[in-house]
Amino acid sequence: MLLWKRIAAVGAVTSLLAAGTATAAQPPDGASRADATIRYTEYGVPHIVANDWVGLGFGQGYAAAKDNVCAIVDVAVTTRAERSRRLGPDAPPTSGVSQASTNLASDLYFQGLNESGAVERLLAEPAPRGPYREVRELIRGYVEGVNKYLRTGEITDPACRGAGWLKPITELDVYRHAHAVGMIFGQGGVADSITASLPGAPPAGAGREQMTGGTGIGSNAIAVGKAASANGRGVSLANPHLPWQLSGTRLWQSQLSLPGKLNVSGAGIPGIPLMWLGHNETAAWSGTATDTTRTYTLFELKLVPGSPTTYLVDGKPERMRRTDVSVLSRKADGGLERVVRPQWTTRYGPVTTRLGQRELPWTASSAFAIADANAGNLSMTNSMFEIARGRTAGEMIGAVRRTQGLPWMNIIATDDRGRVESSQIHGVPHVTDEKAARCNTPLGKELFDANGIAVLDGSRTACAWGRDRDALRPGVFGPSSLPTLSRDDYLANSNDSYWLFNPAEPKTGFPRIVGPVRYEQNMRTRGGFAEIAGQLAKGGFTGQAMRDLMFSHRDHAAELVRADVVGMCRTMPGMEGACAALANWDGRSDAESRGALLFDRFWSTVDRMGPGIWKVPFAVQDPVDTPNTLDTGNAAIRKALAGAVAELKAANIPLDAPYGDNHYVVRGGKKIPLGGGTAGRGVYDSLGGPWDPARGYTEIVHGGTYLHVVAFNGTGCPDTTTLLTYSQSANPESAHHSDQTELYSRKRWVTERYCEKDILASPSLEVVRVSRR
Questions:
Q1: Which of 234, 482, 538, 716 is the most buried (most CB within 10 A)?
Q2: Cα–Cα dist 715/68, whole Å
Q3: Phi-psi region of 610 (alpha: psi -120 to 50; beta: other; left: phi over 0)
Q4: Angle separating helix axes 635-650 and 596-606, nearest 10 degrees
């Protein structure tokens, strides 16, 4: 029996029209309860319809695998701890679900997790701590869909075609993937150290991790309400920033419809059903990573003299738990060897001897354990499921409160009624400022004010995490103790703290671990607020106004300093070419902008110099417009400009070269120039890549991924445009490997087809039925 049953276009449209043209699709006549119907429209976007949750998951899994099967199985190989065996021990992992620096370190980390049985215990929990029934059914169907596609043998992606590791996935693989994503900012960030820490040995780990994140996960999000929109209804912007090459956090676009129960369009991660961000008929949500919130703490342990693996708690000795973790690894000759490494765990969590660049020596008298608030969290899919069904912004934030499964995401929602809501309800250790003052060790006192990182005294049970009565899990803050905000004009976030989602309503009063207040905002936050204010001075937001904001490519740092830099430049001998390039630059980071690259290299140095670069310092009363006025008398700043000129000349790049000549990706051997720029310059369309002194920027590797602008209009068919910057498929053989990347280069959008009448009107419509049988 054919795996794909292709329906002739005329027949398909007739069948679907017979089912009606309501917002929610009806499955075609004759579809069994286990079948899914996939309608493909422009740029390979699938619209999936089914009769039940299993069928819906099945269709999504099949369609996701068709585009990104290598990415899905790559993550499964990772969480099964099979990378060293399949791909060799020394290469860096491509999955991105931890910050392990090698396949061997990744395997040892995940094998340790697997042997602990943590995910299986969480699966045994009743909902909402364990998955909802509907979520379990979605995941069951999803796995069947992925595996059905694997059985077609239609794998053309050279990344995995014919690979021995391309095996069917399991439901447990999906849950392990979700669990790992939740710990990226915490335990997963010190995977190298967890797998290599030994008493008395030098601090382990390669130092790849950063204390305050280092995952490459960021975002912009804006939600506009009735007081700031042209028609009195909501407008949503989504702009997550993620690594472009890592499979575990790659985004993929689809629409899921189960008549009467769900009709959501948006983007999620291949390998995990449902959406990270998107919209339904009447509400939309986007999200940002909480770079300023800590989802973990350290505990400093007092060790028993003469026994470095025994620590004291309230004066009583307690032994660490040793697990000799064993994985198979491929040798240079192709054979296999068994690698065994001990891992040490405490009541608080695993022992680590490094946090980013900070060494945490395991001495004869002390050691450190990392405690992750999301180690006991498997509810992310519950939260995604409930958010997608929210009919208003308030219902979406209510879903976050009920499920409490988001590990580290802020949610910003808006709706057809023009209300906007935000939530920072996610996994945050229950460490009040009072407890931090009582329990922080000297290292904790140093780190807590600066970075929000608590290092608590592990020798006292009184210093363990607390618990809120409304928290579903022990040891974390409940929803009533975490920030939310509701307005009717706008809310926005660009990875700064909860303090300033709207400059008109600064929010304070939450523990330091939740985020700082009254501090200098990042340049992207400031630039975003400046652009919002500029639009509101002209009139309310429309969908087009939001699209213009997204792709304005204004360089906010340049808007603050360029005139002063040009003036400084003209006092520096031999800099005439640089001065002309900066003076004639249009101040934007479009692909054709000339002078942008020179400013980029200059600002990449200056931005690391700290607050001393400004004549006017940060003022809490004016957080959007301060600090300002570059101190051009600072010799280091003058040196930075000369250094930028030297960099470009060394790479044989003209000082006024078009930006896109050296800011690009290559697809199918073709260089695709890109605009956008680094977050440090305040370019809202954030993009970045490595700088090669001999060639300049090489390929872009990080930045904007799935973009949407959803503008509600009261019809149930919102005016929505989307863009998946790296396109739907990672497979270079796919027709949808670079088509949207080409659009992105030209600042063009895809008009979404959400309602039935629009899906059926697509000139690219292809209707496919796939069956579990």
A1: 234
A2: 34
A3: left
A4: 130
Which residues partner with 278 through β-bridges? Answer: 266, 285
Are both 447 and 565 inside the same structural domain?
Answer: no
The residues, any chain, with a CB within 8 Å of residue 373's CB and separated by 6 or more, are 186, 295, 296, 407, 427, 428, 429, 475, 476
Asked if residue 149 is part of any domain, the answer here is no
210 lies in a domain?
Answer: no
Full 3-state SS string of 42-89: HHHEEEEEECCHHHHHHHHHHHHHHHHHHHHHHHHHHHCCCHHHHHCC
Neighbouring residues of 270: CB distance < 8 A, sequence distance ≥ 6: 64, 65, 67, 68, 71, 72, 247, 250, 252
**Residues 331 and 440 reside in one and the same domain:** yes
**Tokens 């001393």 map to which residue?**
612
Do the bridges between strand 45-50 and strand 252-258 make them parallel or antiparallel, or are there none, so unpaired? parallel
Residue 219: which pLDDT band, with cuts at 50, 70 and 90? Answer: very high
Q: Based on the domain organization, do 451 and 584 belong to the same domain?
A: no
Q: Which amino acid is at 456?
A: L
748 dihedral zone (left: phi>0; alpha: psi -120 to 50; beta): beta
- Please state, in angstroms and rounded to a whole number, the distance separating the CA atoms of residues 671 and 661: 9
- Quick check: is 755 in a domain? no
Residues 453 and 558 in one domain: no
- Structure tokens belonging to residue 244: 């472009």
Full domain range(s) for residue 610: 554-675
Tell whether the model's pLDDT for residue 346 goes beyond 60. Answer: yes
73: nearest Cα among 140, 148, 173, 145: 173
Q: What is the Cα–Cα distance from 575 to 197, expressed in whole angstroms? A: 52
- Please give the C-alpha separations between residue 181 and each of 120, 191, 271, in angstroms, as whole numbers: 16, 13, 11
> How many other CB atoms are there within 10 angstroms of residue 717's CB atom?
17
- How far apart are the C-alpha atoms of 634 and 641, rounded to whole Å? 11
Residue 290 has a pLDDT of 81
The pLDDT of 476-484, averaged and rounded, is 98
Same domain, 338 and 437: yes
Please state, rounded to an integer, the average pLDDT across all residues of the chain: 94
Residues 458 and 574 in one domain: no
Say if residue 313 is in the same domain as residue 436.
yes
Angle at 51 between CA 48 and CA 54, to 5 degrees: 80
Q: What pLDDT, on a 0 to 100 scale, did the predictor assign at position 425? A: 97
Q: Is 609 exposed, middle or buried (0-12, 13-18, 19+ CB in 10 A)?
A: middle
- Residues 341 and 451 occupy one common structural domain: yes
Residue 773: in which H helix or E strand, if any?
A: none
Last-in-domain residue among 644, 675, 706: 675
Q: Select from 638, 653, 675 the last residue of a domain.
A: 675
**620 lies in a domain?**
yes
Please report which confidence band the pLDDT of residue 8 belongs to, taking 50, 70 and 90 as the band edges. Answer: very low
* Count of structural domains, the chain: 2
Q: Does the active-site annotation cover 219?
A: yes
Q: Cα dihedral angle (575, 581, 585, 590), rounded to 10 degrees?
A: -120
Indicate which CATH number applies to the domain containing 439: 2.30.120.10
Cβ burial of 347 (10 Å; 0-12, 13-18, 19+) is middle
DSSP codes of every residue in 417-473:
T--EEEE--S--B---HHHHHHHB-HHHHHHHHHH---EEETT-GGGS----TT-SS
Active-site annotation holder among 197, 219, 229, 257: 219
Residue 612 half-sphere exposure, CB side, CA atoms within 13 Å? Answer: 8
| DSSP H or E segment with residue 341 | strand 336-345
Report residue 405 as tokens: 């499964």
Q: What percent of the chain has pLDDT over 70?
A: 94
Helix (H/G/I), strand (E/B), else coil: 136: helix
Q: CA distances (Å), 184 to each of 103, 200, 729, in order?
A: 16, 27, 24
Q: What is the pLDDT of residues 293-345, one digit of tens each?
A: 999 999 999 999 999 999 999 999 999 999 999 999 999 999 999 999 999 99
The CATH code of the domain that includes 560 is: 1.10.1400.10
